[in-house]
């Protein structure tokens, strides 16, 4: 399912603004240098911890302004109409891969590193930190995850086509009806993933 382009962009935290500023500073100093994302994130985190409340104040003000912007836009936002009915899911249908979005692949890579650096961090705070890291990543850093996600999606789509073709040959109209059910389940799964990603972005 296509994400609604009119939906307001998720609000950024003070830490996300800080990382964004660090990235801009690094690019000005080293315009041609490639960035080791893991090392860069670790340095940003260490620097953030040593900053005084006064130094963090600028970024907290930026986050507050962005929160007001987000709340204002959400008040005026009207989500697309239309509800879907849940139907029976065919147990023989190909299973969706667990990581079909670039963000989830990114989380799978970086969650263990976050846990090792912050052993006492709760699941919610870990998800929040991953969301902040993803938001502050450049398009170049996101590209490998987007490519991998596209390949997984392509394989899944091929499996679905093969399943549907076989079903229609084997069972005729009955299989075709199951295909429709399967498609709806696929769309619902995508919706859930988008909601999770939005939550992390926030």
From TrEMBL:
DNA-binding region extent: 8-78, 96-164
Acidic residues biased stretches: 177-202
InterPro entries documented for this protein: HMG_box_dom, HMG_box_dom_sf, HMG_boxA_CS, HMGB
UniProt-listed SUPFAM superfamilies: HMG-box (SSF47095)
Keyword Repeat: yes
Subcellular location(s) of the protein: Chromosome; Nucleus
Keywords: Chromosome, DNA-binding, Nucleus, Repeat
Keyword Protein biosynthesis: no
Region described as Disordered: spans on this chain: 70-96, 163-202
Example of a GO biological process term: regulation of transcription by RNA polymerase II
Recorded coiled-coil stretches: none
First-listed, main subcellular location of the protein, grouped into a coarse class: nucleus
Domain HMG box, first and last residues per copy: 8-78, 96-164
One Gene Ontology molecular-function label: DNA binding
Cellular component GO terms, alphabetical: chromosome; nucleus
UniProt cross-references to PANTHER family, sorted A to Z: HIGH MOBILITY GROUP BOX 1B, HIGH MOBILITY GROUP PROTEIN DSP1
Family as reported in the entry's similarity comment: Belongs to the HMGB family.
Protein name: High mobility group box 1b
Gene from which the chain derives: hmgb1b
